[in-house]
Amino acid sequence: MIDIIKNLFYFKKSHIPKETCEEIIQYGKSVIQKNKNMGKNTNSRTAGNNQKNDKRHIPKNLKTSNEINNDLDYYHRDSEVAWFKDQELYDMILPTVYEANEKCQWFFDIDEKEDIQFTVYNENGFYSWHTDGGMCHASKYKRYIYGITPFKMLDEHFPKNYTNIHQHIGKIRKISVTVNLTDPNSYEGGDLMFDFSSHTENNRFHTCKEAREQGSIVVFPSFAYHCVSPITRGKRYSLVLWNLGDPFK
Q1: Which residues of the chain register pLDDT less than 70?
Q2: Least CB-packed of 137, 199, 213, 242 within 10 Å?
Q3: Which residue segment(s) compose the domain that 36 sits in?
Q4: What is the CATH classification number for the domain harbouring 120?
Q5: Model-level pTM?
């Protein structure tokens, strides 16, 4: 089934076969374990480094980004990640991106892509309200120069809006993709949610049940506010991909 809801996001249910999803999960888990064995930190990070640590606790409900930024007792995100560059995964995902860009009539100019993020949300894991990118020049990637850029790297992560990938310099995230790899019967919670910014109570938030089926793909503008609600049982595995282009004019 293919559908468009108000041109705000686009989805394909069960697009990737169950067997393929399970293979990707096993592959991702092996990469995370390999990185742990090498002493690497596999915990996810946010642009402002508002991730899990010993001094912060899991919020009982999903607070807005402003509420969290004003209260250091909270952190934004609790998950584990690994990174893929496998061409077969791009070949599996990108056609749906191009299809969404046309059928939703966004017609965004995109010409680059980032590495694919494999994400594990364990029990109580979540990602609070956020956007993946902005709409203007302030959000574009800048070149990171070792020893010169005034911001330090943290656990091999570049500071916000910095990169050393030449093709990404001057680009912004325009289209985001998430792929649910998990059997919906194996976990509870962990819903992808959108904030459409409408001020009518019944229309503002959308719980993306369209993404619950294993192998489902959801495509949306990177400037859209979204979150992953806390996992209350089991684990959720997903892929995330960001597509880049020149800043909006």
Answers
A1: 1-6, 46-75, 155, 198-203
A2: 199
A3: 2-245
A4: 2.60.120.620
A5: 0.87
